[in-house]
Amino acid sequence: MILNYILYRKLDKVIVLSNLENKRIISVGSLIDIKGFDRLIDIFNLINKNNVQWSLDIIGDGQLKSKLEEKINMYNINN
Fold first, then answer.
1. Model's pTM, two decimal places?
2. Using CA atoms, how far apart are residues 31 and 15, in angstroms rounded to an integer?
């Protein structure tokens, strides 16, 4: 899943607590070649074969967005 987030409200304080039960990888950046999101998707596909409880969120926008979405669909990891 590739998301494009724009935050409009100001947060005075952010507290993030994790119980480590949710296994989630979050990656944020411009969707361009040098960032390596294509490799991240390839590696996540390998991880996901044995560890389906993990999820990957990619947050960003850029010239490779449609290509990366195609790769995600090809691997069938678009949950």
1. 0.74
2. 28
